[in-house]
Amino acid sequence: MYLENPCLNEILYLLETNTFSNNAFAFILIGEDSKIPLNELVNSLNSKKIRFTGGVFPKIIHNNETSSTGFVIKWLPNNAISIYFDSSKTFSRQISEFSNVIFSTVYVLTSGLSSDSSEHLRSLYTHLGNDVKFLGGGAGRTKKHNEGVLISNDGVFNTGTIITLTRNKATTGSLHGWTKLYGPFIATKTDKNFIKELNWENAFVVYQRFLKTVLNIKINKENFETNAIHYPFGIYKENSEYIIRDPMRVSEEGYLQCVGNIPENSVIDLMTMEKENFKSVSKNLVYQSIDADLKIADALIFNCISRANHLNDDFYVELSNLTEEIKTNQNKVNLEGALSIGEIYSSGEGYPEILNKSIVLGFSY
Amino acid sequence: MQTNDIIKDISFLYELSLSIGQSLDLKENCRRFLDTLMSIKNIEFGGVWIRNSYISFTEQEHGLKAVYSHPIIKLENCSICNSNFIDRCFASQNSFSCILTQKISNEIGFKVKEGGAITFFQLREIGFLVLYSSSEKRIWSQIDQTKLKNVLDKFSVSIQACISHTTSVQDLITITETKKELEKAKKEAEESEKLKSAFLSNISHEIRTPINAMVGFSNLLSDNNLNKNQRDGFINHISDNGKKLLKLINNLIDVSKMETNQLAIQKENFVLNPIITDLYKVFETSHRLNKSLELRLVLPKNSEEFSINSDKNKIVQILENLIDNAIKFTTKGIIEIGYFIEDETNPIFYIKDTGVGISSENQHVIFDLFRQGESSSTRKFEGSGIGLTLCKKMVQLLEGEIWFDSKIEIGSNFYFKVHNLGQSNLKLLRESSDKFECRIEGSGVKSIDYTNRNILIAEDVKSNFNYLNAIIELTDANVIWARNGRDAIEICQANDPQIDLVLMDMRMPEIGGLDAIKQIKAINNRIPVIVQTAFTFNNEKEECFKAGANEFITKPIDPHKLMEVLQKFL
CA of A299, closest CA in chain B: separation in Å? Predict the structure, then answer.
């Protein structure tokens, strides 16, 4: 369910009058320009005894449109369980209480720019393995704000990870279409999501020099974000697309801050997106994610904010293609989700990682 | 092979090689290596099994153990008891990759029973590594397995280094601990040697002194010109020194028996008061000349027939030693000898003195053999240094306990109790108790009603508290017990319940009576504080009043006197 710039009462009314008696757990995605104070929303939902989890994102997706004031509410089964954690230890303790329950899908919302998000995903995988499908994204804001970015019945959180575990089956898929442009570089010194050195030199200096000499692009710390968005790094992964690491910011020391960790000494490449690849992403992704034999009940998308910024108008073309592809399979299903800071997915095969510049798509049946 | 593919392989092996040996912690080392391997190869499970014979401090000699696995959820069992299957698999190859079968799954305790691709790599002779993918297409080709061989050899060496490191650290800890223990033992032995030397020089002095006196006065006796008084005096000196020597030799023999565990006990039923009274008389007679020292005997009321079943001689010997000690360390003031009865059957003996006291630094060693509170060569007090050790050992033999409290320049209180098998005492005591109640009743105490009044008794000795409680309870007052001065202050400060009167002992642990009175008065000046003490120096009384005490009563406490005081303030 999509709502454009709703007021609190409107949300409460809709949540209270939910007609899905078996699906009364609300999964809420909020646009960062929404005027509803999160604390007030949490308190109101708690007072109405509505179980929920959610996060704030730069923009909300509704079919082929995006809005920074929109709301998306997805109804999850009543037996959904939510866990908030900010360390592996906390998660290990909390999940051990559900060791006898078999879960099928976990919706993951993590603090997107946090340096701990990769470690949190690792903790999830340690205890849940690949029998559970992961689907989610990094919550956060592009504008400075004092409020938190994650919500649940337990409160409002600025960091950490909230997961919602359900026994309902879902299928998931992910694609980005980025390919190797140049490489390799060696990330000789890293600290979680910071690349401090590339090829034994200051990371920004190497990055700047490369763009200048090879692509004739002059970048400095001021125009870094506008330019770097088009030249992310990629970590090679066998039998899969590269894992993209988006250099979001450059620090005073010349360290490149990415979304998701870069292991020290990892060999990385500089990436680019060819027009042909871009065109095929929508069709391939829907094909990869969907179980064509089943009737789709709902669709959820996490699409990277920096992908949108990189593609500009093409992003909406891509979104439109995706919507069309889904409607070809199931006419009544709307494509809803969020523009996120990092994407999370696992299809049950392979080793899950925090993704950047990617589209993650999930279907329930 | 394309250049790009070679670069990919080199990059992969480069990353993998550098992930090895980043930590000497076994799990962390495995984690870093497997995280890199699993991430690049996009593998869903990785685990490392090590032979138990290579793992430090494990009880199992055979089989293997999964020392690391990720995700942990994939393993049902971390141990492989019988390694025959694994040994057979690696008999002719260092690695193999196949579709997971139930047989393999059961052998390694894998949760997934069938399907998917599983790949085994031998880690030299120490164990093996397993990688699993749910897709059966992910079976590793022989060439891919071979590519990893050198890196895996390096990984095996790093695992051995981790294990050796753990063993070395443990050995180092053991060596450090052993060294510390040896140093401690050496120090104790040196100290013991020093103490024994001091003891020998001391004991020779202690034996020579009475012998000198005996020999000297015996020689003087041979003078025919002595008058009767002089002769009697010399004979008394010889007799006293003979007794002193005999006591010392008996103690020495007992110490020797004690060291060889030959000190036996002989239990019998006996009435307590005559023995203590006789002992008191002996000491009182021999110290009558010292006018500044008062020896006082305090026996419980109605205890004339109170008997116990224990070793009479040992109890006498303990009391003698404690009284000797008290006399030795008290030049003026009071020495009080007596006992209370706890729980109607158990006597708690005490010897209280107003002597030099024991410093807090020396309090923990005073029961050690050959020790004295003061052990320097210029010591002021004579004695062998075995008395208290003997007392403690004897009390232990009698299944009892001995304890003390002491303050420098104030004095010392020694207490001991022994296990009493006597049953007949109960009746006697009940009779005594009944008599006591009748007496109290006769005095009109029972007609006093202090219902809803809260009386705080600050007293560290339980039997003393019991005694006071027994009297006060007859008035229906609510009695609260503080075991030391600190508790008494806290209870008054909390003011819940509101305290109407405090009975304050002077010598208590943590915070003594004087300080407690001052602080209680500072909290609430209106609470009457009655001092109850065994020490009756005038200056002590003055100090108590100066601190803010309202009344002063001396132990043993007379119930009438106590009631009079209570009536005065409540």
Answer: 26
Both tokens assigned to B112:
């997934």
Cα–Cα distance, A242 to A174 (Å, whole number): 11
- Domains held by chain A: number: 2
Residues A151 and A200 in one domain: no
Q: Which long-range contacts (CB under 8 A, 24 or more apart) does A41-46 make?
A: A41/A8, A41/A11, A41/A151, A42/A151, A42/A152, A42/A153, A42/A155, A42/A156, A44/A8, A44/A12, A45/A12, A45/A15, A45/A153, A46/A153
Please provide residue B360's backbone torsions phi and psi, each rounded to the nearest 5 degrees: -60, -30
Cis amide leading into B556 (omega within 30): yes
Same domain? For A201 and A296 the reply is: no
Number of alpha carbons in the 13 Å side-chain half-sphere of residue B71 = 23
Closest CA to B520 of B486, B569, B477: B486
- From A238, A272, A306, the end of a domain falls on A272
Cα of A291 to nearest chain B Cα, Å = 18
CA B178, B183, B186, B188 torsion-angle sign: negative
A70 and A192: one domain? no
The last residue of a domain, from among A247, A272, A297: A272
Burial of A99 (0-12, 13-18, 19+ CB in 10 A): exposed
Cα gap B323→A83, rounded to integer Å? 71
A35 and A70 within one domain: yes
Cis? peptide before B274, omega within 30° of 0 = no
Q: Could you read off the pLDDT of B370-404 as tens digits, one per residue?
A: 665 544 433 445 566 778 888 988 898 898 999 98
Token digits for B555? 């132990």
Query: Which residues of chain A have a CB within 8 Å of the CB of B138?
Result: 239
pLDDT tens-digit readout, A241-292: 999 999 989 999 999 999 889 999 999 999 998 877 788 899 999 999 999 8
Q: Interface of chain A against chain B, CB under 8 Å?
A: 122, 125-131, 184, 186, 235-240, 263-267, 348-351, 353
Same domain, A48 and A92: yes
Chain B neighbors of A131, CB-CB under 8 A: 73
Assigned token pair, B529: 């504080």
Query: Does one domain contain both A238 and A314?
Result: no
How far apart CA A65 and CA A67 sit, in angstroms, is 7
Mutation target vs B (from A98, A103, A130, A134; most B CBs, 10 A cutoff): A130
| Sign (positive or negative) of CA dihedral B156, B161, B165, B167 | positive
Q: Element (H or E) spanning A215, and its range? A: helix A203-215
The CA R_g of chain B, rounded to the nearest whole Å, is: 40
The domains found in chain B, sorted by start residue, are: 3-169 (3.30.450.40), 189-257 (1.10.287.130), 268-417 (3.30.565.10), 443-569 (3.40.50.2300)
- b/e per residue, A115-140, with b = 16+ CB within 10 A? bbbbbbbbbbbbbbbbbbbbbbbbbb
Do residues B298 and B348 make contact, with C-beta atoms less than 8 angstroms apart? no
State the ipTM, two decimals: 0.87
Q: What is the pLDDT of residues A165-217, one digit of tens each?
A: 999 999 999 999 999 999 899 999 999 999 999 999 999 999 999 999 999 99
Backbone angles phi, psi at A304, to 5 degrees: -70, 135
Domain span at residue A25?
A: 2-175+277-364
Contact predicate B504/B513, CB 8 Å: yes
A61 bridge partner residues: A66, A337
